[in-house]
Design brief:
By secondary structure, the chain is an alpha/beta fold. Helix content is about 40%, strand content about 15%. The chain is globular and about 55 Å long. The structure holds nicotinamide-adenine-dinucleotide and uridine-diphosphate-N-acetylglucosamine.
Length: about 350
């Protein structure tokens, strides 16, 4: 039986596909390539030496999705497909609600029709909003502060309702903190469109000479050095969290949220220093105004994942920086770069 991976051509999806295939799982990938490239899947095949089926479909399209379930024997679904840019979600909220909510509703309907009730869902630490409680535990109040975050919070609530209506479902709600890094091969990594919004892709484009300098969004936060603190997690550790969550949904019938983070916070300046040390590249920066909506501090209490999923992050900040840089150096134009490592 196969694991259906929605959004499997994306950043976290590709890394999870590699870990699934290396672990002997059969996978089927669906993705509409709205924020990814087919080449990413070729690289997954290259890294693992394994093949798998790919359907270029929108998961909101019931007919196409039904066809995937008809043609394959699907045991469980890992659901990454979604739009994820916070700023864009403020500008075009309906697009986000439509894509993320409708897509998940269609997916669950088709899963139910085919009796597939094991689901691992990509949620986000963004559902915690501006909580004061640090480190954040899963039982913190949810209060997303932007349309993207609200789609995640609404989907979580919808999945809780689905489970309440039919407790034969088994659902893991994975709340990721800040995924960074890339596969150690340098063949897959994060490939944002245009100017990156997130810190590490921005720093690595400064390092490779595509952007002149980093803008640090505020140094007057109530933190050690005044810059924002986040819980950065290596994408391969995150991918492995999905394998543990898959085992969890296979062996239980519950719906549970889990934090996937390291439990350790790094400030923006600490990340810049770690990147410079790990790569030998100088990162020029300028401190600018705070970015609206940014929290001062955000890091996980990951104990529940350790206890119930037997999972914890293993890779440190140095490895995250080295791997980010290897990917960026070998693929200065992401998957459009001609040269393979
Ligand atoms: P990504 O954009 O790289 O991957 C998402 C993939 O889903 C893309 O390949 C995109 O083409 C596809 N997709 C989007 N809508 C689709 C649809 N309707 N039908 C089919 N395919 C569709 O993003 P990512 O960083 O890999 O994130 C994966 C998931 O994790 C997303 O749901 C995201 O919201 C969530 N998440 C990401 C982060 C992060 O920092 N990257 C943090 C927290 C949560
Ligand atoms: C952002 C999203 C969050 C999403 C996460 C992962 C916002 C408000 N939040 O989180 O919903 O789940 O990405 O995709 O967009 N920084 C700079 N300069 C930059 C970029 C970032 O100083 O050019 C700082 C930020 O102020 C923050 C830290 O670096 O303190 C991390 O930022 P980022 O990588 O964008 O992640 P988050 O803001 O935590």
């Amino acid at each position: 039986m196969a694991i259906l991976v929605t959004g499997g051509a994306g950043y976290i999806g590709t890394h999870t596909c590699v870990e699934l295939l290396n672990n002997g799982e059969e996978i089927i990938v669906v993705d509409n390539l709205s924020n990814s490239k087919k080449e990413a899947l070729n690289r997954v095949r290259l890294i693992t030496g394994k093949d798998f089926k790919f359907y270029q479909i929108n998961i909101s399209d019931r007919k196409s999705l039904t066809n995937v379930f008809e043609e394959n024997d699907i045991e469980a679904v890992i659901h990454f497909a979604g739009l994820k840019a916070v700023g864009e979600s403020v500008v075009v909220p309906l697009r986000y609600y439509d894509n993320n909510l409708t897509g998940t509703i269609r997916l669950c309907e088709v899963m139910r029709e085919f009796g597939v009730k094991k689901l691992v869902f990509s949620s986000s630490a963004t559902v915690y909003g501006q909580t004061e409680q640090m480190p954040i535990k899963e039982d913190a109040t949810l209060s997303a502060t932007n349309p993207y975050g609200r789609t995640k919070q609404m989907i979580e609530e919808m999945l809780l309702d689905l489970y309440a209506s039919d407790p034969s479902w088994s659902i893991a709600l994975l709340r990721y903190f800040n995924p960074i890094g890339a596969h150690g091969s340098g063949l897959i990594g994060e490939d944002p469109n245009g100017i990156p919004n997130n810190l590490l892709p921005y720093i690595s484009q400064v390092a490779v000479g595509k952007i002149r300098q980093l803008h640090i969004f505020g140094n007057d936060y109530p933190t050690g050095d005044g810059t924002g603190v986040r819980d950065y997690i290596h994408v391969t550790d995150l991918a492995n969290g999905h394998l543990r969550a898959l085992e969890f949904v296979r062996s239980s019938t519950v719906v549970e949220p889990f934090n996937l983070g390291t439990g350790q916070g790094y400030s923006v300046l600490e990340v810049v220093q770690a990147f410079e040390k790990a790569t030998g590249k100088h990162i020029p920066y300028r401190v600018v105004e705070r970015r609206p909506g940014d929290a001062a501090v955000c890091y996980a209490n990951p104990k529940k994942s350790l206890k119930q999923l037997a999972w914890q992050a293993k890779k440190n900040m140095e490895q995250m920086c080295v791997d980010t840089w290897r990917w960026q150096q070998h693929n200065p134009n992401g998957y459009e770069s001609k040269q393979l490592v």
